[in-house]
Amino acid sequence: MNVSHPSVHPVEAPPLTNIGEDALRVRMKDIQGMPGTHGGLVLRFFQFAFAAAALCVMASTNDFTSVTAFCYLVAAVILQSLWSLSLALVDIYALLVKRCLRNSRVVSLFAIGDGITSTLTFAAACASAGITVLIGNDLGQCAKNHCARFETATAMAFLSWFTVSPSFLLNFWSLASR
């Protein structure tokens, strides 16, 4: 019968060379404003608050549905407020269980979502600002319309965009630095 028998031959470990080059990479600390940090939670709260304020102010007028740009603003801030609220809940969960949200798939999802919602919010705020200027300055019909409310809702949408931009940039930077 031909059966092989295992044999163990001692082998010397290779000498260590280039110790500095083969050292493990050190992970960067979480910067405040990234997902799963207190700063990120604060940014998400302000994103939600400003988007919800823009929605409430615009919805309090009775004639915003007659202008497409204002309807677009309402749709964009609804999406922004839902996105910010859901990510705020994820941040709260991560802070409570002390989890790090540095997974590349999670960060890429956050970066893509922040990029889409910030672009939509900015475009809607710009379109609404243009219509507000048209109604107020060019047509001079502020007496018949709710110019102050339109301006307030537009300003809240811009403030929401200003608070989404750091979240997007930090997530994108974290994703690109891997």
What does this structure look like?
This protein has 178 residues and is mostly helical. It has one domain (38-176). The protein is 65% helix and 0% strand. The protein contains 4 helices and no strands. Helix 1 packs antiparallel against helix 2. The longest helix has 35 residues, at 104-138. The chain is rod-shaped and about 100 Å long. 31% of the residues are buried.
What attributes does this structure have?
mainly alpha; 4 helices; rod-shaped; 178 residues
Globular, elongated, flat, extended or rod-shaped: what is the shape?
A: rod-shaped
> What is the string of helix and strand elements?
HHHH
Instruction: Tell me the span between the first and last alpha carbons.
Output: 56 Å
How many helix segments? 4
Helix percentage: 55-70%
Number of strands: 0
Mean pLDDT: 85
Give the total of domains: 1
Low-confidence stretches: none
As a whole number of angstroms, the C-alpha radius of gyration is 26 Å
Strand content: under 5%
| Major sheet description | none
Give me the secondary-structure category. mainly alpha
